[in-house]
Amino acid sequence: AMEKSYMSIFLLLVAVSCALAKDAGKKETKETTAKPKLPQTLSRGWGDQLIWTQTYEEALFRAKHSNKPLMIIHHLDDCPHSQALKKVFAENKDIQKLAEKFILLNLVYETTDKNLSPDGQYVPRVLFIDPSLTVRADITGRYSNRLYAYEPSDISLLYSNMQKALKLLKTEL
């Protein structure tokens, strides 16, 4: 009886993973056929020509498999601070160019992953995660009470932190 239940659990796992693999395959084809439209919606105005991931899980998967760092921007559509940072981020050519070297994700909702809010849930909040899927707590903005917050005037700090995230990648991996 024990062997039988192990076998049914195994078969269930195989069935589930097949179904998930099929879904993942579908997503890929949808993305490739509707390419010009997709980045537009996922960018939410942070850089329409950049390639943005749709979910945290997809972003982690891509970071791990592409060996690129992941940059996550938490923001809200009705937050004036988020809007101001978005405008500066999207209009800064150097930032946009450097952003191409990252797996990118911008979220307008909080995730349940506590690693993404190491010092609280506030917006805008920018976190870097390396391909080993470690949140880089050592790459922070200039506020001691909101470590991952950036204001429009901090854009050069954000740029140097993006460079730092890429440099750490080369020295540590």
TrEMBL record:
Q: Which residues cross the membrane?
A: none
Q: Determine the domain of life of the protein's source.
A: Eukaryota
Keyword Signal (UniProt): yes
Q: Does the keyword tRNA-binding apply?
A: no
Question: One GO CC term of this entry?
Answer: extracellular region
First and last residue of the signal peptide: 1-21
UniProt-recorded name of the protein:
AGR2 protein
